Amino acid sequence: MNSLDTEVLKLALDWLDNGHTVHLATVVKTWGSAPRQAGAMLAVRQDGRVVGSVSGGCIEDDLIGQARDARLPAGPELITYGVSQEEAARFGLPCGGTLKLVIEPLRPLGWLKAVVEVTESQQLIGRWLDLHTGESTLTDAQPGQLTQVNEQGCHFVYGPHWRLLIIGANQTAHALAQIALMLEFQVIVCDPREEFTADWTMQGVTMQPGMPDDAVVAIQTDTRTAIVALTHDPKLDDMALLEALKSKAFYVGALGSVRNQKARRERLQLFDLTGEEIGRLRGPVGLQIGSRTPAEIAVAVAAELVQVRRTYEDQRVSGLKPPPAAPPG
Predict the structure, then answer these.
(1) What is the Cα–Cα distance from 298 to 292, expressed in whole angstroms?
(2) Is 151 in the same domain as 185?
(3) 269: number of Cβ within 10 Å
(4) What's the structural domain count of the chain?
(5) What are the b/e assignments for 131-148, b being 16+ CB within 10 Å?
(6) Residues 131, 194: one domain?
(7) Tens digits of per-residue pLDDT, 227-248?
(8) Residue 247 and residue 307 in one domain
(9) CA 288 – CA 33 distance, rounded (Å)
(10) Below-70 pLDDT ranges, the chain
């Protein structure tokens, strides 16, 4: 399973391989309450079929109409929607929001296949688009790099900007991995128990060998890494947490009841962890939505990951410290 944006590029490539004319629209800049962020993509065929989204509203309808009428540009072109209040209302943009898109025709050969291959392997890759020549050049990319645009061209970044290390290869981990891939996390799973990993098969997920505490160190945990312990085995979960809570991970959580979490915190106090480090632990993990099944627990954890990731990004930009974990109980 791939991220939604990777699926846009993959289907666009399939359309090209089957002889269709395809244009790619990418959001490069927003003002006000725009519904999609820079980097959001939509591919549209000459017959009006689309995949992806740039607004979730009438901009898609406008692009479909232009595609069917063969009015989309023959080369890359910047188009702005929502300059006036009237136009914003016409295209369904809330609060006078404005979107700037680059619309470009896709070619059967070139950058697209390489980008699909790299992102399917859960890696980052960049692309420079020259707006004057229409030429694309693939570049290196770093997590956190944003879509950029100037008079000469646009720079796009494709692939996961965030990582999720899951400790445990059980049903909950499987469901969480599926959701996390769609949320554009690079997903890594560590479980030293062969009986749990022998039949694990999921495209795009990396299996990290070794013990959980070693895995936290081996992946070079950084501020764009989340770590979730899901084994139900304190020997394994606590080993991961001992390293994770001392790391730069923006999110550290563990599965377990309120009573189990209290006992876990008491155990962690016996090791070389400060009170502040132990206070970073999120447990019971996930938003409190009454989840019981593995899939429901995965939804709760994924929702909290999104919440913390968005808050972390906002506070990082403003120069504030990331939010602390909620108090237990």
Answers:
(1) 10
(2) no
(3) 11
(4) 2
(5) beebebeeeebebeeebe
(6) no
(7) 999 998 989 999 999 999 999 9
(8) yes
(9) 29
(10) 1-2, 32-35, 56-57, 83-97, 315-329
